Amino acid sequence: MNANSSNSLLVVPTGALKISEHPLTDFHRDNPILLSLVIPTYKERNNIENIVNILSRLLDEAIPGNYELIIVDDDSPDLTWELAQSLLPDYPQLRVMRRQEEWGLSSAVIRGWQVATGRILGVIDGDLQHPPEVLIQLLQKIEEGADLALASRHVDGGGVSSWTIIRRFLSRGAQVLGLIILPGVLGRVTDPMSGYFMVRRSAIAGATMNPVGYKILLEVIGRGQVREIAEAGYIFRERTEGESKVTWKQYVEYIQHLIRLRVSTGRLGKISQKVNFPVGRFIRFGVVGFSGVFVDMAVLYLLSDPSTLALPLTRSKIISGEVAIFNNFLWNDAWTFADVSMQQKGWNQTIKRFLKFNVICLAGLVLNVVVLNIVFNLLIPNRYIANLIAIAVATIWNFWVNLKLSWRVTDVK
Ligand code: GDD
Ligand code: MN
């Protein structure tokens, strides 16, 4: 069966960046193909036909009918996707995705893998800087037992063609920095920057990827269950058509990515995964809640103490409670849930989150009182223990409902 039965574009998956254990369609679930190779592209109009042609000829010979090429284009202004689409009738193993709502190299690769029907998932650049023949070696290494096989510039047979000293220095510098921050991942391969590799689907199925920027390999090794890794040398060729999309921004993102991976694959991250609960977030939420107690106390003192304003107690408490809620919101928005609020910028969104947070916390207060009464009157006739239990229940409620409602990504650009 052909990989594409029509000449239409692939539907872009949405939601979590997670690879399923099996291909999604019933047919391919029972009959997966061997290799799904993703070619991420952005403004590669002058390369695309060439690379599709070369890869098809190579793979038609090596594994005829047992592969697919998946181009994932981020709506290139040079209409790379349209040109790719026009190739569909001539290349039965080709599939094309045009993304318009999301962008970036790493997520492009994962979106491509999500629709893949293969047992082995691979990626190769679309600009012919990665020599296609190496694919056969990579494939062989996986068939010999490796979970992941990457093309490396830093083993025998590898190298870069004519890089300046500065570029070599930057590239190595990034690698050393990575080794310091994330030795468990970068220490496993000689070329962690490689964007040319293959991995068994089973080794990354089920892991939610959270990549920033360019370095998808780090994500795969960091979050997957990759046991054996093999490498094949390759010479990184010079570009002849189009230009590189790497700017200083990719260096910043690279560092962010390292730190994020470090945190989420560290001890706390592992516990979170095991118990399927965001432990780190909950701790931050708790710390913020604790700060709210002091804010509440301070404001209550300023308003109601006989030596200060001496306002009535109830009125003072309502104000101090509300100020504490406001305090907690600010910290939670900027810290506990910073990753989520960053995706939902703008005053409108912030105010919406604040109102939700407010309502949920007030409901939490009611819950607090109810639980206190139930526990005290029916279970444990000690008001302080009962209160501790009530506070714990209300905190968990506050955290969980806010996690699900207030800091939830509702509109993805
Ligand atoms: N879909 C999509 N979206 N594709 C992209 C994007 C994007 O935002 N940015 C770049 N690409 C595609 C390019 O069209 C190309 O096919 C491939 O990703 C690599 O991009 P380049 O801009 O050519 O990267 P490079 O040559 O500097 O970097 C290469 O070498 C690195 C090692 O030094 C890539 O192979 C990297 O993956 C590799 O890590
Ligand atoms: Mn390139």
UniProtKB/TrEMBL annotation:
Chief localisation class: membrane
Residues in Glycosyltransferase 2-like domain copies: 36-203
Signal peptide annotation: none
Subcellular location: Endomembrane system; Membrane
Origin: domain of life: Bacteria
Topology of this chain in the membrane: Multi-pass membrane protein
Sequence ranges assigned to domain GtrA/DPMS transmembrane in this UniProt record: 284-406
Cofactor(s) it depends on: Mn(2+); Ca(2+); Mg(2+)
Example GO molecular function: dolichyl-phosphate beta-D-mannosyltransferase activity
This protein's pathway: Protein modification; protein glycosylation
Stretches that traverse the bilayer: 282-303, 357-378, 384-403
Recorded family membership: Belongs to the glycosyltransferase 2 family.
Role description: Transfers mannose from GDP-mannose to dolichol monophosphate to form dolichol phosphate mannose (Dol-P-Man) which is the mannosyl donor in pathways leading to N-glycosylation, glycosyl phosphatidylinositol membrane anchoring, and O-mannosylation of proteins.
Name of the protein in question: Dolichol-phosphate mannosyltransferase
Source organism (scientific name): Nostoc azollae (strain 0708) (Anabaena azollae (strain 0708))
Phylogenetic placement of the source organism: Bacteria, Bacillati, Cyanobacteriota, Cyanophyceae, Nostocales
